[in-house]
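BUG: 3D viewer hangs when loading the predicted structure for this chain

Environment: internal workstation, default settings.
Expected: structure renders.
Actual: progress bar stalls at 90%.

Input used:
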Amino acid sequence: MNIQSVVNIHRKDRWSWIYIPALILSLSYFVNLLVSLLINNDEKFYTGGVTSIFVYVLVLGIMVVAQSFPFAVGMSVTRKDYYYGTAFMGLAVNFIIAALMCIFAYLENMSNGWGERFHFFHFPYLNDGTFFEQLIMYMIQLTFLFFLGFLIGSFARRFGGKGMLLLSLGAFLIVSIVVFLFHQFHVWSDIFQWFNSQTAAGLSYWLLPFILFNMAVSYILLRKASI
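Structure tokens produced before the viewer hung:
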């Protein structure tokens, strides 16, 4: 079997890759649209419901290892082919999601919130760049979340529940120390000023090294993971 076979395995799981994200986004959209209609005022209504798709992409990255890795390896798929096939599938789906979000954001902005001042996809600052800049921004963000989830799933497959517990405790400890140091040395204002000076697209480029790190470590973990 090869990379194409791995992609075919994932394509058969239409619920995880297509139906569930479409359902989540659709339900979130219509629920928030209903809320905006009930409020019924002349101000623009901005909702953060679109973040649900970002959360799901993170969860998808975690689930895909647990759901498909044992089956794929049991079907004589090499770990290398599984990794590259899954990475390709993740990138392809993320590109489709990013493209659809950009298209809907453009239509939403052109129609003044679908004629009801309702903004689900288009936001000031986040969508200030060109269509191409927004596409790259969303693609980077979604890819980061997918491979972060993929890293977590690969770590869980390699080290099991005890390993995940130690990882969680270690991450909590590191974050706590960093927050304490930032507070101790009064650098929060400098950090916020730096963020305010950046564009949304520019900030997303800082995620690229983390994406490469997540991809590399996931590959190493899967090469040694048991089924």
